[in-house]
Design a protein that fits this description.
The protein is of the alpha/beta class and 319 residues long. It folds into two domains: 198 residues, Rossmann fold (3-Layer(aba) Sandwich), CATH 3.40.50; 84 residues, UDP-galactose 4-epimerase, domain 1. It contains eleven helices and 13 strands. The strands form four sheets. The protein has a seven-stranded parallel β-sheet with strand order 3-2-1-4-5-6-11, sandwiched between helices. Strands 7-10 form a two-stranded parallel ribbon. Strand 1, helix 1 and strand 2 form a beta-alpha-beta unit. Helix 5 runs parallel beside helix 6, helix 7 runs parallel beside helix 9 and helix 7 crosses helix 11. It is globular, with a radius of gyration of 19 Å.
Length: 319
């Protein structure tokens, strides 16, 4: 099987590509413009086992060329995160909507069998729990809006052209290989290792469902195999079903580094525009499709992630 992974040199992409090469022995094409990674990081993790195409997902011609002969496309490349979308909404739209369209159209024309689209729980905004997939999108940020639009295009291509689309809404992803990740776990780890205080914005009572990236890679691989096609193109939440407050997370990160004699302070910061109070995606649809799936909780995944950051910090300090 030939799989094209856009954003394959990024955080989630590297974890997925490593899994596909190690456990599935598939041929992988990576499309990435290295805006959030480097060729050196890619080579360090993947070596020369994948074909690398240096291209931007906004380049329609590059998309058409990349998917020729492919059995599946996993579209991970995107502008990620609420703060970036607030700073540059147009760039957010171009990457997340036009970029998705380019690969949907390329996949349709090339006869690709499976198309897997990365989306986000941010499309639901402040929807009250249980946050099921059938609730109407109510995004509070340009990022959430662009992801909702990309979901709509996937549904349209499934209905209009018969393209087998699987849309996965990721909860808050964390884990190893997150060098350039800007979300809260990575931000806390980087600040702690730099000797800076952890900044908890908006009081810290807001909750998130934290998803370990290695588990997410397993779900993505199942989608590439077509095992999630039973959703019929409707979005699927990929989450643990457990919420943790940002204040609790900060305490856990500080306690972890205190054990290794790296004490860090915790400070309060202002609320962020576009932030949501509760992110509690329902996991019923995912469990119905993958009843044997086991996802790690924060108690297991967080120490592994912080240890990875600690090792990376030591490598940088020694160089």
């Amino acid at each position: 099987m030939i799989v094209v992974v856009t954003g394959g040199a990024g955080f989630v992409g590297l974890n997925l590509v490593s899994l596909l090469l190690a456990q599935r022995n598939w041929e992988v094409k990576i499309v990435d413009n290295f805006s959030s990674s480097t060729p050196e990081r890619l080579a360090r993790v993947v070596g020369h086992r994948a074909q690398v195409i240096n291209a931007d997902i906004r380049d329609a011609e590059a998309a058409a060329a990349a998917v020729v002969g492919a059995d599946a496309v996993v579209n991970l490349a995107a502008q990620t995160g609420i703060p970036s979308s607030l700073e540059n909404p147009k760039s957010d739209l171009e990457h997340n909507v036009i970029g998705t369209f380019n690969y949907l159209e390329a996949a349709r024309r090339a006869g690709v069998r499976n198309f897997v689209q990365a989306s986000s729980a941010a499309v639901l905004g402040n929807a009250q729990p249980p946050q099921t997939e059938d609730k109407p999108p109510r995004p509070r940020s340009p990022y959430g809006a662009s992801k909702a639009a990309s979901e709509g295009y996937c549904l349209a291509y499934a209905a209009s052209f018969g393209l087998n689309c699987t849309v996965l809404r990721f909860s808050n992803v964390y884990g190893p290989l997150s060098w350039s990740k800007g979300s809260v776990v990575a931000a806390f780890a980087k600040r702690a290792l730099a000797g800076k205080p952890l900044v908890v914005n908006g009081g810290g009572a807001q909750t998130r469902d934290f998803l370990y990236v290695v588990d997410l890679a397993q779900v993505l691989a199942q989608a590439v195999d077509g095992h999630l096609a039973g959703a019929g193109g409707a979005p699927i939440n990929v989450a643990t079903g457990v919420q943790t407050s940002i204040a609790t997370l900060a305490d856990a990160v500080a306690a972890h580094f205190l054990k290794s004699r790296r004490p860090c302070e915790i400070e309060s910061g202002p609320s962020r525009e576009g932030d949501v109070a509760v992110s509690a995606p329902s996991v019923d649809r995912l469990q119905g499709l993958l009843p044997d799936l086991k996802l790690r909780g924060l108690a297991q995944g967080l120490p592994e992630t912080l240890d990875w950051f600690d090792r990376e910090y030591q490598v940088v300090a020694a160089s």
